[in-house]
């Protein structure tokens, strides 16, 4: 990609972050959202939706479209932001986040929200759904890709590794797991909660996956990894993206109290200023 194209994707990530903090502010303290978990995947979603994925807002259900499963569904403000920027949602719909009779729930809902390919809620289920979609593509002789965004804490779930085994058995080269490795989960650091999750890279390798490690906030790294994953012809790919929880907002970065928390007006204004952009 040219420097101009990379810069365009970076600007999209800025827009995504601005909408994330707006949503997490306007929802208020009664229905607190998850800003930290959403901010860490903004760059990844920008690259997926504005560069890599084959999707069409005018034909959202076309059979050959690429699929995205946000398995860490609590980070949905990031997904809703990008769906709005792609034209799947209106401004009014974006403002309906977690409101009664709104279409944007606190976790993605494939039946209620345009552009959502899989409902999420309970952690650990997304990769299994992605395996099923990938097998369906092989059976139907279609070449679409299925992308599953996982949290590193989520990878403590046993179903993740059962799904990884199945994906390897069937050589699901059209399946890409992107692990948002920000080092935190809801109550503590991942390393403190389950130290034996490491060595993480070697675990995916031992399950016979193609593994790529990247800086999850470096747009060049992200785009390159997605290209390599799509063109890998033998195995499913795990992109392990090293990220910062709360990325882009200084008082949120690596502060796990922002896993689920509402912003005050002062904090919201500071966050928007720090994120920058037009």
Describe this structure in words.
The protein is of the alpha/beta class. It has a single domain, classed as 3-Layer(aba) Sandwich (Rossmann fold). Helices cover 41% and strands 10% of the residues. The protein has a 5-stranded parallel sheet with strand order 1-2-3-5-4, sandwiched between helices. Helix 10 links the parallel strand 4 (210-215) and strand 5 (237-242). Helix 1 runs antiparallel to helix 11, helix 3 crosses helix 10 (219-230) and helix 6 (126-139) packs parallel to helix 7 (158-169). The model has no long low-confidence stretch (mean pLDDT 96).
Largest sheet data: 5 strands, parallel
Counted by DSSP, the helix tally is: 11
- Helicity, in percent? 40-55%
Strand order of the largest sheet: 1-2-3-5-4
Count of discrete structural domains: 1
Portion of residues in beta strands equals 5-15%
What's the rounded overall pLDDT mean? 96
Write down how many β-strands occur, each being a DSSP E stretch of 2 or more residues.
Answer: 5
In the CATH hierarchy, the architecture is 3-Layer(aba) Sandwich
Q: What is the CATH first-level class name? A: Alpha Beta
The general outline is globular
Brief account:
The chain is of the alpha/beta class and 278 residues long. The protein has helices at residues 3-26, 35-39, 42-52, 76-86, 91-94, 126-139, 158-169, 190-193, 200-206, 219-230, 265-275, and strands at residues 67-70, 146-151, 175-181, 210-215, 237-242. The chain has a five-stranded parallel beta sheet, with helices on both faces.
